[in-house]
Fold these 2 entries.
Entry 1:
Amino acid sequence: MTTETQMIEELRRAVADAPPSAVAHLRLGTALLKAGELREAERELRAALALDSRCAGAWVNLGGILLARWEFAASIAANRRAAAAEPGLALAHYNEAIGHLHLGESAEAIGCLTRAVELDPKNGSAYYHLSVALQANGQTAESKLCVAYATELGYRPDPASLRELERAQAGAEAGPTDEEGEAQTNSQPNSQPSCTPSTSKEKHNGTTEGR
């Protein structure tokens, strides 16, 4: 039995043996999420929220699961609930922006990412995705500046992220390319491992913790 499996079993026992606890369900849900057991993780996260509707960590993790299923509107709503419960939680604003980018809603993504970098000014990934949103919105000079900030912070976009920026650039040059008139993007979801805020975010080297 692996350490990860042992931890999940211990958390299951904690949920079963203790009085109903949002934190206990959240811890189990987060461990299951890290293990890739998304369906069971979602069940535990929703159980946590049934006990505490203001548990920001549960909303962020649930938003990550919904994003992975391409349920972008639902993911945005979940991350908004996280931000409402904990306004200083940069990850909630960041993750909401990723949902907006998937829907081609560049203006909304700019608002969320601007707040994310205000709260976490060393998050190179947030600056990079802000550059994508700005470029899709036709703000080329501002986009280039954000790319420079991301690079200075050590962020190295993966090929998918580079394609996002290229599509945004092409869309800005050619004009509207879909019914919304804005660029579509593809990004990976993030998650948060505890009910307390600001515990996990995308690292500046492009990897992610707490998934």
Note: The first helix runs from residue 3 to 17.
Entry 2:
Amino acid sequence: MIEHAARAALSLGCFVGIGSILMVLGTPEDSAARVVSIVALLLGAGIVAASAAVLWLGIRRRDRCTAMPHPIDDEVVQPKEEE
């Protein structure tokens, strides 16, 4: 569930970042539109970094969980009854 949300956030961050890069290139210097575009670029980069970190941590956790043996997999030994 978290991975799906992180992937959606990654897509959103890429969309915002690429759009703001195009806006920065298309706006004149010393204008309010350029300032807003730069703020959007920083916001998009932050979203991409945060969602990439969440995905990376999820992959590490999944790899760690699959590397460890499951505690229920231990063999059950029945005690012998005395006669």
Note: Residues 32-67 form the longest helix (36 residues).
